[in-house]
């Protein structure tokens, strides 16, 4: 890029070009910048990126060098297949930190498989990516790739080490309910709220039994806080009841969990077409609160990573249909999508959907320029 003051240049200009050949016809930053602009504007693969570049070449030349024009789709594919994803992710996180100085509130961590990134001919499985989502500021904070969903336990500590989580409340589903992960979060000066299921059988049974006994006695012997919410939409009524207590002395395994301060029960009662179902969920937390309101909101906020990140990546960015798979390209393109999403999520100039913003960015150079100013 021609401006040295640009945040994008500052964060991504430190990358080393992974192409070993000396006769590089296209600048590293030009390749990345064209790709980011193209993905914002609706591109879903390298051929789309080239189509965008050629259609917008005059406009792109207003801020890129483009000494040898627009690269071919093979050049884009080769570059991102060779680029070290951990180094690229580091630049991405520097960029996120620069646009959002301090992340607060709930940070949800969860995994998602990029379903068509598999390569059966080379016995390569689809990549599974564990991501962190800050709901309060609508930002994807980072990601770590694992080979399959079962390895999320190994990936989550790696991701936690990459993030500045001081003062945040980290929420993770049952797979991430591990003592070492709880310890990592506490050491990062953050709090945790972890879902319980069978992978922590003894603790899950203890928490469930404690709440069942308390409910049978109408909580006569358990100090607790209570909160409930009722949602009505499209013929569905959902009542959520939350009980939160710091009375964890009856948990036989409590002392083995770093920072453990309380436990939560959430009962979701759904009525659809006059049929009612009830589901109980249990959580442990390091938080000490004088009400259940914040923790109830955190339980709900965790699903923001599904609704605001994973769902959008699949439905609006067509991530699950992407056939990009060679080398590191699928993982690096996943990072590019998160960059594009972050920019559009934090565009307050209109209330359009992400799909609408992508279309407008593809049609209106002035709007795309407006989005680029946020980079």
Describe this structure in words.
The chain has helices spanning 7-12, 28-40, 46-55, 57-60, 73-82, 85-99, 152-162, 179-187, 201-216, 293-302, 304-315, 329-345, 354-363, 365-372, and strands spanning 106-113, 128-134, 139-146, 169-172, 191-196, 225-233, 236-245, 262-272, 275-285. The chain is an alpha+beta fold and 375 residues long. The protein has 2 domains: 7-83 and 349-372, no CATH class; 99-310, Transposase Inhibitor Protein From Tn5, Chain A, domain 1 (Alpha-Beta Complex). Strands 3-2-1-4-5-9-8-7-6 form a 9-stranded mixed β-sheet, with helices on both faces. The chain starts with 6 loop residues before the first helix and ends with a helix.
Outline:
This protein is an alpha+beta fold. The protein has helices spanning 7-12, 28-40, 46-55, 57-60, 73-82, 85-99, 152-162, 179-187, 201-216, 293-302, 304-315, 329-345, 354-363, 365-372; strands spanning 106-113, 128-134, 139-146, 169-172, 191-196, 225-233, 236-245, 262-272, 275-285.
